[in-house]
């Protein structure tokens, strides 16, 4: 399954890119589909931006402008995102109330930049406009006289004015002359669509996780066990941790990743993922293999000299097919997830303290038993246990796989 994002550049008066507005798309048709709500579209856009594409790959050093409606602001979704990377666009039809204004002001006090989207002279919601840092003025819906009125209204209020829907060079030159600092529109570029292969999804896992997260006493071991058997969830969680930039190359296990994120933030992120994925249930043989390897490596570690590293080896097993699923080489697939360097090197085929166990797993899968028998003593593993451990892992993975491929929706 392919996923899509459109982006349109936002430039300064010297044609230098300041940022990109990121736009939801569900195919190669370059327009918004009205068969989906704005908050669902933004939820999907955020998951795709941060997990599948990587926000840095989409915008580089520039800012990402992302539309938010009332529900997403009130739900705290914006707080999941890097305030130095994104600009929150409040949609023009969002009506203010006490709860919304409190949450917008909280975001502003946290130094998030707030923009008012598609602003017109007849805008009814001055409460929101007053707290916004940026005003995006619609050049199609406003006449020149109305635009000048808007510029005069805000010129002494420390607002950054952006001219949007600029379609000609003449409009661009006129906008510069009347006081606009930033510009967006078809004159510069139409939204360009980016396409990427999606990860397989296991909708049942989201339901299981939500049930665990809603327990009075949260069992992190149960949550870890659910996540580590699913390559999609594992990859997404690690990419979420990576969005907290200071944690790059520090994560050793799923439990540690959950500790970094925190229960509340993880629950919010999981809800976003569910919006996108519950209607797109899918799995494949690569997922089965990742489950099998995760369990097999955990069993190998348990009765070897690597018994203190069961979680690390389980994570290696889960991620060992990520290159196949994403249809890219392993180095590129691992580039933006924050597992520690030694785990990463193991997956890249380098010699590490985990590599003998990982090689033992791969050799046995391939039926290269002579080489497997040579490796087992290096990690103090009784080779007599290998066959039983392997077939127990195959049976376990088949059972989990079969449960997950039963559609209950």
UniProtKB/TrEMBL annotation:
Pfam families: EAL, HDOD
Transmembrane segments: none
Superkingdom of the organism of origin: Bacteria
Domain (HDOD): residue spans on this chain: 199-383
Gene3D superfamilies: EAL domain, Hypothetical protein af1432
InterPro entries: dGMP_Pdiesterase_EAL/HD-GYP, EAL_dom, EAL_sf, HDOD, RNase_Y/CdgJ
PANTHER family registered for this protein in UniProt: CYCLIC DI-GMP PHOSPHODIESTERASE CDGJ, PTHR33525
Name of the protein in its database record: EAL domain-containing protein
Organism: Helicovermis profundi
Lineage of producing organism: Bacteria, Bacillati, Bacillota, Clostridia, Helicovermis
